[in-house]
Amino acid sequence: MTGFEYIFAKQTAWAQNRGIKLFGSKRERGRPAYTSPLEKNLFQALLPDTEADFNAGDGGALKGRPSKMAAVHSSDALGVNIFQYWQKDVPTIATACGLCASGNTSPRGIRFEQKFEICPQFKYSPNIDVVIDTDGKSGIKAYGVECKFSEAYSWLHSGLDPKYLALTDMWVEIPATQSLAEKIRSKDETFRHLHAAQLIKHVLGLKKRYSLRGFRLLYLWYDVLGEEGCVHRKEIEEFSRIVNGDGVWFKSITYQELIARLAKQVRAENKEYIEYVTARYL
Q: For residue 47, what is the DSSP state?
């Protein structure tokens, strides 16, 4: 069983266990993977600000019937199910992610699908899945979170478009990251599961907006059994080694580790949420 097949089987079993009927992309045609309505795929309905964020993003998560977010293996749905709940207590999720120390009260708000311009001449800017804003008092203005679910085990990813390498000023302070970017120019033959080009663009966008020391970037990923999970982890470690050497604050954590940490630390006050995410994603 591949990593994608494992995730898909686990998510369809979750739906079946709860009596949630799944539909194909053309309702009665296609592989049953979508809920109707969307809310059946979410712990809580989208808040107005969350819906606005996704509608303003470039991913098209809410477009179509069914929408991409309605898929049980949707990375967008997983991100919403984990993060949206904590709009009422942002420091708790930021701390659980390892983005700041316990007791830190600087995290202020959670946004989704935020664009970070690299060059005004480029048609599109990188969309970061989750951004946690801070009060900025420590010098850290924002925490970016790139979230990966089934796509890390199913989609082929591209290398870095050479147009980014032509922006010589953008690579000041990060020569090791630039060397990696050169290595995966146009075609990435180094990483199988980690979309390194996407992460590099996030580093460039965040660095332009906040400066090298003004942001933290987290890679939040879903681990799977077997070779694919092992290779994915090694690729993350190698990417971390390179960008950390440039002074980029980049770390990773699995969804399983994050959920287990939340279950241990905040179950009593958040029983329904913890029961949902543990049953579905652990």
A: P
**Residue 3 parent element (H or E):** helix 3-17
Q: Which of 157, 162, 156, 158 is nearest to 185 (CA)?
A: 162
**Count of alpha carbons within 13 angstroms of residue 219, beta-carbon side:** 25
Q: Residue 250: beta bridge partners?
A: 217
pLDDT tens column, 124-143: 999 999 999 999 999 999 99
Q: What are phi and psi of 192, to 5 degrees?
A: -95, -40
Instruction: Give the model confidence (pLDDT) of 148-160 as tens digits.
Output: 999 999 988 999 9
CA atoms within 13 A on the CB side of 218: 23
Quick check: pTM over 0.90? yes
Sequence ranges of the domains in the chain: 73-281
Give the contacts of 122 (CB within 8 A, at least 6 positions apart).
163
Contact assessment for residue 255 and residue 222, using Cβ atoms and an 8 Å cutoff: yes
